[in-house]
Amino acid sequence: MGKKRIMVACGTGIATSTVVVNKMSNLLKERGVDVDIQQCKVSELPYKTDKVDLIVTTTAYTSKNDIPVIVAVSFLTGIGVDKDLDKIIEILNK
Predict the structure, then answer these.
(1) In this predicted structure, what is the pLDDT of residue 85?
(2) What is the model's pLDDT at position 1?
(3) To 5 degrees, how large is the angle CA 30–CA 35–CA 37?
(4) Mean pLDDT confidence for 76-93
(5) Whole-angstrom Cα distance, residue 87 to residue 81?
(6) Closest CA to 94 of 53, 50, 56, 61
(7) What pLDDT sits at residue 50?
(8) Could you read off the pLDDT of 19-55 as tens digits, one per residue?
(9) What is the Cα–Cα distance from 42 to 87, expressed in whole angstroms?
(10) Of 9, 10, 20, 54, which is the active-site residue?
């Protein structure tokens, strides 16, 4: 099985998604999970989710295909991070 891919999206594809990418990347690494994480604007998701295993957003988004979506504001607020991280790992291990 190859490296799992996560697309992180926020409104602009810059500020909040960068914070989420950095925190998520470090926490997944601490747990021994090796992933490829990329980021984009939410509006770009329909065009950038080819071969992506999981979409993580900071805003509401409904996937048009079967890719799971997690709204992970916890990486910005610090509240519920472990729960979201467990969910991410569970999805990636399927």
Answers:
(1) 96
(2) 52
(3) 110
(4) 95
(5) 10
(6) 53
(7) 86
(8) 999 999 999 999 999 999 999 999 999 998 888 999 9
(9) 21
(10) 10
The secondary structure of the chain, three-state, reads CCCEEEEEEECCCCHHHHHHHHHHHHHHHHCCCCEEEEEEEHHHHHHHCCCCCEEEECCCCCCCCCCCEEECCHHHHCCCHHHHHHHHHHHHCC
End-to-end CA distance of the chain: 11
pLDDT above 60 for 87: yes
The two tokens of residue 8 are 């992180």
Cα maximum dimension of the chain? 33
Active site residue 10: yes
Residue with tokens 């993580």: 56
